[in-house]
Amino acid sequence: MLGERILELRTAHNWTQVQLAQKLNVSKQAVSNWENNNILPSIEMLIKLSKIFSISTDYLLSLDHRSYIEVTGLTDVQLAHIKFLIDDLKNLK
After folding, report:
1. How far apart are CA 20 and CA 59, in angstroms?
2. What integer is the mean pLDDT of 37-50?
3. How many domains does the chain have?
4. Can you give the CATH number for the domain in which 75 is found?
5. Which pairs count as long-range contacts for 9-18, CB under 8 Å and 24+ apart, including other chains?
6. Residue 21 confidence (pLDDT)
7. Is the distance from CB of 3 to CB of 45 less than 8 angstroms?
8. Does residue 67 carry a pLDDT above 80?
């Protein structure tokens, strides 16, 4: 399940395994092994993955299914626009 989540997040960001590996300072093989559930990333790597993808470690581990968007530094007006867009997208269902 963790491997699927890493793959899902990586492809959502349009990153190759090589690009993600470079961001984490690991080999492409490490990313491939995580995605194929051959090995598990270390706790340190879980934290790095959560920071790179701006998600919680609970989400990464499939313990929390909420999605988060990093909005630190945005103005109240910008936040209002984002909330409007999110509400609009939810209504498309």
Report:
1. 18
2. 96
3. 1
4. 1.10.260.40
5. 9/49, 9/53, 9/55, 9/60, 10/35, 13/53
6. 98
7. no
8. no
Q: Which domain holds residue 91?
A: 1-93
pLDDT-wise least confident of 29-33, 47-51, 66-70, 72-76:
66-70
| DSSP output for 52-80 | HHT--HHHHTTS--------TT--HHHHH
Residue 65 and residue 48: Cα distance in Å, rounded? 19
Helices (runs of H) and strands (runs of E) counted in the chain: 6, 0
Dist. CA 17–CA 55, nearest whole Å: 19
What distance in Å separates the CA atoms of residue 37 and residue 86, rounded to the nearest whole number? 33
